[in-house]
Amino acid sequence: MKDPTLPETIQLGHGSGGIMTRELLDQIVFEYFGNPLLDRKHDGAVLDIPGPVAISTDSFVVSPIFFPGGDIGDLAINGTVNDVAMCGARPRYLSLGFILEEGLPLEAFRRVVQSVRKAADAAGVQIVTGDTKVVEKGKGDQIFINTTGIGTLHPGANIGLERVKEGDSLLLSGPLAAHGMAIMSKREGLEFESEIRSDTAPLHEIILALLDRFGDKVHLLRDPTRGGLASVCSEIAGDAGLGIFLDETQIPVDSQVSAACEILGLDPLYVANEGVFCAFVEPGIAAEALALVQDHKNGRQAALVGNVTAEHVGKVVMRSTIGGTRIVTPLLGEQLPRIC
Amino acid sequence: MKDPTLPETIQLGHGSGGIMTRELLDQIVFEYFGNPLLDRKHDGAVLDIPGPVAISTDSFVVSPIFFPGGDIGDLAINGTVNDVAMCGARPRYLSLGFILEEGLPLEAFRRVVQSVRKAADAAGVQIVTGDTKVVEKGKGDQIFINTTGIGTLHPGANIGLERVKEGDSLLLSGPLAAHGMAIMSKREGLEFESEIRSDTAPLHEIILALLDRFGDKVHLLRDPTRGGLASVCSEIAGDAGLGIFLDETQIPVDSQVSAACEILGLDPLYVANEGVFCAFVEPGIAAEALALVQDHKNGRQAALVGNVTAEHVGKVVMRSTIGGTRIVTPLLGEQLPRIC
Questions:
Q1: Band of pLDDT at residue A33, cut at 50, 70 and 90
Q2: How far is B163 from chain A (nearest CA, A)?
Q3: Class of domain B161-328
Q4: Does domain A12-153 have CATH number 3.30.1330.10?
Q5: Which of A143, A335, B160, B235 reaches 20 to 30 Å from B3, CA-CA?
Q6: Among partner residues B40, B46, B54, which is closest to A45 by beta-carbon distance?
């Protein structure tokens, strides 16, 4: 479908703040996001949200922008929805900022905008304010998206680094490395029996169910995106001044993802995830919490993969599948650039 | 000042989510933004802000990133502070998302971060959550910044397009086109007797003073950034279904800015501003409101520049300095790319 007044590609004029900007917004953005708040077309939106609120921001620069299992549009929604959820809050409102590169096919932009809308609907969040900028060809890369999310804190939530304690169980909600390997397989042109698909998904419903049931017995929530589970656990061990023990035999990784990692010489512990969280919970509720997570569509393969210990403070130690133990160091530099 | 473990330029590894990211954040970002909310180093922040709240987002892609009167750092703070203020709210919290280009000198990043901090302090807002991504050289342009702001709605505020009425006075808070011409002069290497400096400034204190005193007699607030006063007025005239009359003789433009516009063939009505707002107010309070704005440092040159009329609906008509009248059309395409 073509709009009579829109050219086929994004032009600098679409970022001018004048008629071309307005046409682009009216015919693509407002077309898909019309809602009473956004329709006011002011510089911002006024929300009647009861406090306390959680806020989180993320910029998405993933390349390629379309990949098996998703695209930069749903990633930008799910990524921020999950960051808000990890604070123990129900995501409610999102801002949406596009930085478009001159020459981007309008159809690609439309597809991303549709995908943003679909993901926002699926997660039950509303886009309430936005911004669109255009940069010259060669000064950007097709589309960058920033989303900032606001959510209502769950009344039972008490999430924080300082709440992680010796003995806490570490629950992982799903298999590792699917997002990173979907991107890498696409970039490298790797083909497998069945396509590796990104795990991008909103996780707040599981999180809220956990908090409904277990309240402050859930101590810390994190989604291991860039840097993977290894980096998140290392950071937490360092910041909390405790040790973390991981049992490799318990960590779920799909066999194809595992094979792709081997081919490319990557360790799934360091690869980005976009639909997985880890929860540090009181050991007494670990089994029940696991069952609850496994009951959800995005948590079927959840597992208890480790625990917090007073030994090896600041470090993550893993017992490997062949029985030895090793220290898991955080990622040093770049493993997979532009993964999210 | 060099940090022993940091290289001299931004590298892809700084966006990895691993140790290099942590070092960059610890030694530059947290160094300047340490506060109890940010220090939790979670994926987001929890705020105890009473509703209703205003929210606004903006991405900044200005080129060059350093210019007379400011840089992309203070622009990113003031721009969003002002958008929140235009909703009739006191800006309180900001998120901060960087997209850095590989190869950016670390000193440039440090300078921008310092500038962000200084502007945030000056505006009385707190950076509560952030994100830093790195893209390959040639896939970005030094630094892009997204800020999303949250503020507390002023109890007396009732701002909206639907409140603009026939007879409303249009108050402009300062001289036009300084920001755009500062950028252009720098790009074009134009030299004037004294440098043209961007007008970037936070405007919320004046706005809040107006609302304290006049409450809902202030009908609409807008800052004419991209597209300038002409585009903002055209948009409002179209959306509100009313006409706007402008008196060119009353519109303040500094003489050097005016000269620069002439040299470059630009109309100051279309050039971006970053420290000016326009207010549509009840005619009965116009003179008092003007005096109040002129009392503020950033409002000394404020003027009453027009009014709302039931004639020429949807259009902006201007009486020029030589006495004729003409229709002011909105900006069509791009006048000054990458201005903010």
A1: confident
A2: 12
A3: alpha beta
A4: yes
A5: A335
A6: B54
